[in-house]
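Hey, why these numbers?
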Amino acid sequence: MPDRRQFLTQFSRASALAFLPVPTQWLLRDNAADPDMIIEAVEILRLTGPYTSTQGINRQYQAQPTFIYPDLRPEPYEDSPSPSESTGSVIQHYIRIRTQGGLDGLYGYIDSETIAPILHQLRPFLIGKNALDTEKLWDQLYRRNRHSRGGHYMMGLSAVDNALWDLRGRYFEAPVYQLLGGPTRDEVEVYGSCLGYTVEEGKAGPRAKQLFDQGFRNQKWFLPYGPGRGNTGLKRNIELVAELRDAVGFEGQLMFDAFMGWDLPYAEAWTSAVEAYRPYWIEEAFPPNRLESFVHLSQHTSIPVATGEHFYNRWEVLNFLKAGAIQVVQADPEWCGGVSELVKICHLASSFGAKVFPHGHNIHSALHVVASQSPEVCPLVEYLILHVGYKLHFQKDPLLTDDGKLPLPEGPGFGIELDESKIEKQEILAD
């Protein structure tokens, strides 16, 4: 039997590496010198195709900061008794990063606000760089722009980072969660966001019970009224909690979202009235620039206080955690810096004993991060029941669930593949 040195002289380096454990292969591959991994294109794909939707139902609004103005505050919502189907065109955008060796990284769909910074500010710098230098590229892109701490530039950086993680997964032929350290569970349970479902009295409860019976044990409902509706709206916001709790019992977890539409006195009145119903959290009672309101509310209610979908980096999260302002972090990997930054936020939150429930749009990046973290830190992933199908419309085998659980994808990267049968027109945007 030849010794190790003799063995390696008989075979090429590539053949020898094939006998090593996969993580060891990754470490020993000369990735940095691989010319095939040099980025040659950063593209925005504009996809157009038909889409059928139902009009007249599932259009319930949530509280909005602008609702303090009577002319901007809609009348209470009611589902139409006679909904109708309508077919039109839908347009969505994806980011694709291509390397000289022909490997692609794909992510989407992405927010339209990200397109300009990607094409005009991020793309010129990325061309010619090594696509595997994920951390280095994130840091350099963040340092290059004086406005990188928030807004559309950071949203564009998030899209780039997610596409690079997909590309990296395809290169190593592994799902992103595997690159992040491996899965901590075989499937991920979701919390069903009920955005769009009517909260009319007598209708919200039966809907919640139906969803609970399907498997959505965790549900988030959206409170439609704020201070502009006075005590009448406050009373209905309280009654909604009671109706939903009665429908699902105490076995179900109920979360509530106010979307920055309240002030501190209103939030204190609501939390005091509903504490006995044990909400899992109250989300975004205020805009994120009102740190002191979050601190005060956290100190005066037993209901966990949540926010974070409008956090754009780990430093904003740190400020809230240090102040004891929140117990639930909801950073969005589509907005806060991508997978790379969300992982750092998870580690930061764990040191404060806080939980991370990533705000979810397209679900892919959030799902893979959650799957790689301790269930103590990331118990659930958000799933917008009425919206995920639309957001993943152009994808093959979209990540959909009707029982509140998502099996882990097994394909490389995020496993996103476009369904050509749904695309009538595909364009590459030049600028």
Notes: The radius of gyration is 23 Å. The longest strand covers residues 39-55.
